[in-house]
Amino acid sequence: MADQGPKRILVLGGGFAGVYAAIELERLLQGRDDYQITLINRENYFVYQPMLPEIISGSIGLFDTVSPLRRLLPKTNVQVRDVESVDLEQKVVVTSPGFKPVAHRIRYDHLILALGTVTDFRGMTGLTQHALPFKNLGDALFLRNHVIHALEEASIEGDSELRQALLTFVIAGGGFSGVEVAAELNDFVRGVAKTYRGIDRSEIKVILLHGGARILPELTEKLGLLAQKVLAQRGVDIRFNAYLQAATTDAAILRDGTHIPTKTLVSTVPSSPNPILDMLALPKERGKIKVSNQLQVEGSDHLWALGDCALVPLPDGKSFAPPTAQHAIQEAKVAAHNLVASLRGGTRKTFDFGGLGKMGSLGHHSAVAEAFGMQFSGLLAWLMWRTVYLMKLPGWDRRFRTAVSWGTDLFLPPDIVQLKIAHSAGVTQEHYEPGDDIFRQGDLGDRLYIIIKGRCDVLRVIDGREQTLANLGPGEYFGEMALLNQTTRGATIRCTEGLDVLSLRKGDFGALVTHLPALRESFEKVVDRRNLGPGPD
Amino acid sequence: MADQGPKRILVLGGGFAGVYAAIELERLLQGRDDYQITLINRENYFVYQPMLPEIISGSIGLFDTVSPLRRLLPKTNVQVRDVESVDLEQKVVVTSPGFKPVAHRIRYDHLILALGTVTDFRGMTGLTQHALPFKNLGDALFLRNHVIHALEEASIEGDSELRQALLTFVIAGGGFSGVEVAAELNDFVRGVAKTYRGIDRSEIKVILLHGGARILPELTEKLGLLAQKVLAQRGVDIRFNAYLQAATTDAAILRDGTHIPTKTLVSTVPSSPNPILDMLALPKERGKIKVSNQLQVEGSDHLWALGDCALVPLPDGKSFAPPTAQHAIQEAKVAAHNLVASLRGGTRKTFDFGGLGKMGSLGHHSAVAEAFGMQFSGLLAWLMWRTVYLMKLPGWDRRFRTAVSWGTDLFLPPDIVQLKIAHSAGVTQEHYEPGDDIFRQGDLGDRLYIIIKGRCDVLRVIDGREQTLANLGPGEYFGEMALLNQTTRGATIRCTEGLDVLSLRKGDFGALVTHLPALRESFEKVVDRRNLGPGPD
Questions:
Q1: If you count Cβ atoms within 10 Å of the first and of the last residue's Cβ in chain A, which end, N or C, has fewer?
Q2: What is the ipTM of this complex?
């Protein structure tokens, strides 16, 4: 049946590359029922990435930056699943289970790989646990809610150290994404601060960390410097040659040893190709799939790769296409054309697109842009930015909604509703640096900690003097006493080395201990032992 | 200092009762600095409850139904925290910790209790685990996303039984809230179904369970019957005298034994007073605080209670104020007035409000209403409903945004973006009925289960015949083999009794087992034992 049925074209990924490839395939194969297009993506929407930072300030509606894939691709079978594995031999893609733990197996004749990149904090201590990524709608909403939460807490916090950390917002990465996030976040927190009775605007710090000597290296020096000036005037503190190296729950730590106390650290770098690629035995360079200038995977006649997961040669023969939306869209058109040509015959196209222009918003009716060999800045660039994005937004309903939101936003105050959503829950990991206190004697006990790596001291004030009761290491845990018997911590836990811990919420821990006899016994032993002497907690 | 400083008025709760009490206090005490008003609420916004169901269909923006408390109450200290405990003797309220595990203690001179009700599934098997509540913004967004997820899965599901369960939506409760949720949900799923290539509208079932013989008992019989007719015409299947008794991950179970296979069960009943009240030694009846017709707690001169957590006598001396927004607002005005009178002298007021009217939306430009002794239905009632709510919305920016959303919604298609948010994660509880399979041989293994209550069989197909390998009970676990060694389940788990389990995600389980030696040893022992014979999984 497989060989007589329609040709099955499978697209993996719903970013600019994947979606525009499917749109183009739908157009080229219109009216033909001997083809079947399927697209797999983990979200049911396409994110219009360049506008995502505007979610932070709420200047556009939550759903305005995204388009439902089914509306964009009426003739494509859209499957909202994670890709678990790809079997290139058998020509089968396996997706993760949905409501029932059964995997789907999807057969294909042609495969388009457009899996993009993922945020990758490997090798950077504590970033996975404490830095906020900024890639999809969930990230943007989470950041927005987190920022509002920090403002809420700062407004009632008496401890001046914690208060300053709550009012310090650090963004790592001075490229387009980092600059736009910093600009929007800065506008937002300074704009809403007056609504908070306990917060003075002068207490707010927004810090942009950039590895280079000037931000926006994608643009000319003149525009980059201009952007710096605009951001600095609005109160963004730009730190140059500053590399984020580690993070704890209380601070961002730079390569030169600087600690910046903060409760909000956003990292727009680094990203690496989708881990699915590691499983594929395909020619790769720098982790990306090598393709011809016709977007075909080297050595294959039915595999195509494009977008940020592919290494696409530019006409100069030396460089490769940069990871921008414009390039992805052009690659998608070429790939779709060539795929259809390989099926039906016809001339193939080669990819030779140099890009039209570049632009970045600086928030607050200001932007910088380069296009047609000219440079623009300020209000004019901002109007260009809005107009171009409005025209590029897929779907007229989206355009209309966004235009209305933007119009409304001009004269309404920004929204400060904090939508509480559980982002990470259950068992989480945390990282601490030497000298950090994980909790202090007298604190409320709301979590249990299990040591993965590193060591810490258990300290208690006895007769007015702080005394070390014990030193704990990997596999040991602390914090269980407050959960079992008491509500406040009987001791302080201070790191003597860099410490990684697993942390469990009170409720989860209680449920496990109650129902797992082995765990209960083990905890009871430790509790008994600790109760004999002055226990650690 | 406490006695010489300003009088501290503390309001607990940010629903209609608490917010309107604070608004009225701000007004009455305007320009006086010898008073300090503080309000504590777990969210930083006030929910305009009657419009919450519209979130489901996205016919209003996500934030249009809520108002930031700080904007509504510019002169009040708003604290966004959970109330942990109230010490009536010491006149102190303790709130839960924020970013740091330290509790806040807030002293008061006058306390207004407006804590409302909470969803309470106690005594109803499996509802806590498998029924979706519908009380706040998070619930509404979660339901919306869940419904879209069910549609996404149904569109690619081959198993016809699972497919039908995915396309069946059950709402329990035929009062205003349940009817409005059913109407909006029905409009939404039928409206967007055509966007899903694999779904036929005729497959969709929306079922409203109601305990009585007609819905909307709050209204006259005529209007109730009319509402039933309108809903039935739109395809809502109303089941009368139907009591929801239990739920599993696959079905809603009624008192008469009927199983309705579904993956979406919304329960708008029952609610009970906030559990904080249980800790307070105050005169109560039916779990609510008894107050005078001046809203003062019996036997106290500085405690006030109102809204759904109070039993407020009506002028007839026999009945009590119903739990509606209108009554809460009137109670708030009386309580605020009397509190100020008790501080500054002056005549007190008594509560004698009978309500102005009642109305409920049926979705799709239709509603039913009773007001001024008259009855309205259809488009006229719907326009009344919209106008009244628009005027009642606190804040002009909110009114404007909502009016724009409603206007836009008239000619744009409904949105189907699924915003993935982790609602419940980590350690969750699940309930199964006798005969249910928790997983089947060959399924993907993505969770570990620990038995809390009940028993189940471990079955494996050997030589084409299903054989029972073991029977497990409380404290035992299953599913660990697939997580440790394999990716698919080696056995089927079938309940022989009603079963409650704790369930852990693969990643959480892996982290715990890796780092907790006691747990690892215990699991290894079981794995060894099971590997000797044909193990359960």
A1: N
A2: 0.78
